[in-house]
From TrEMBL:
It comes from the Eukaryota. It comes from Nymphaea colorata. Keywords: Glycosyltransferase, Transferase. SUPFAM superfamilies: UDP-Glycosyltransferase/glycogen phosphorylase (SSF53756). GO terms for molecular function: quercetin 3-O-glucosyltransferase activity; quercetin 7-O-glucosyltransferase activity. Belongs to the UDP-glycosyltransferase family. This is Uncharacterized protein.
Length: 127
């Protein structure tokens, strides 16, 4: 009903992009796992719009080859948030460990991040 109402009042196309996040509150962070805030310090060391943010969360899983190809080919600094259990199999985890060695100079990997703050950070903003 809400989407229909919005579409009926504009000529522009309206698209749904994904889950909405509540604003972070220290009294109610609303997270599944403890947040790793070290990624914000890592973002502070990078220029505006220079970091790619990848979050593999609670809905999708993927194999290591898919992940490594995308991140390995991009050659940009990236912040990867990979929720425990979102990458398939123990062999996949070992593969990601090797991949992490290859990309260590341009990546920060955490299990859970303060997403609203990451998305608002200048380094993760569109350039």
């Amino acid at each position: 009903p809400a989407l229909h109402w919005i579409r009926s009042r504009t000529q522009a196309p309206v698209y749904l992009l994904g889950p909405l996040c509540a604003t972070y509150s220290s009294s109610n962070p609303g997270t599944m796992f403890p947040q790793d805030r070290s990624c914000l310090t890592w973002l502070d060391q990078h220029a505006h719009g220079s970091v790619i943010y990848i979050s593999i969360g609670s809905v999708a899983t993927m194999g290591p080859a898919e992940l490594a190809q995308g991140l390995g080919d991009c050659q940009h600094p990236f912040l990867g948030v990979i929720r425990p259990g979102s990458v398939k199999s123990e062999a996949s985890i070992r593969f990601l460990d090797r991949f992490a060695d290859e990309t260590k100079d341009r990546r920060c990997m955490v299990k859970w991040a303060p997403q609203t703050e990451v998305l608002a950070h200048p380094a993760a903003a569109p350039s």
